Amino acid sequence: MFINRQQLLHKVDFDNAVFTGVPISVWKENQQIDFGGRMTMHDDVAAYIEGGYFLKKEFSFFVRLEG
C-alpha cells in the first residue's frame, strides 16, 4: 500500500508501482518535471511512464494518489 507523495527508492517500490498501477509523478531538484502517470515497467536505468522514460539517476519518482 502506498501513501500520497511516497518516494520510490528501492527496486521493490518500483515493482509494486508497476504491479498496482498507481500514478507516479516525476521530479528533478524539487521541481515537478512531469505529471507522470502509470508506470508500465522499469529497469536498473530508467522508469517507463505513459510511453516515455526517465533516467533513475536524474529524476525522483513519487506516488500521486488521486481523489
Can you tell me about this structure?
This protein is mainly beta and 67 residues long. It is 15% helix and 45% strand. The protein contains one helix and five strands.
Strand order of the largest sheet: 4-3-2-1-5
- What structural class results from the helix and strand content? mainly beta
How can the largest sheet be summarized?
Answer: 5 strands, antiparallel
CATH C-level category: Mainly Beta
Examine the secondary-structure arrangement and name the CATH architecture.
Roll
Low-confidence stretches: none
The proportion of strand residues reads: 35-45%
What's the total number of strands? 5
The name CATH uses for the topology is SH3 type barrels
| Helix residue percentage | 10-25%
- Indicate the radius of gyration in whole angstroms: 10 Å
Average pLDDT taken over every residue: 95
- Helix count equals 1
Work out the count of structural domains: 1
Distance between the termini: 16 Å
How do the SSEs run, as a string of H and E? HEEEEE
Molecular shape: globular
Quick structural overview:
Helices cover 15% and strands 45% of the residues. It has 67 residues and is mostly beta strands.
Secondary-structure topology with pairs:
Blueprint: H1 11-20, E1 23-28, E2 31-42, E3 46-49, E4 52-55, E5 60-63
Antiparallel strand pairs: 1-2, 1-5, 2-3, 3-4
List the defining traits of the structure above.
single chain; 67 residues; mainly beta; SH3 type barrels; five-stranded antiparallel sheet; 1 helix; 15% helix
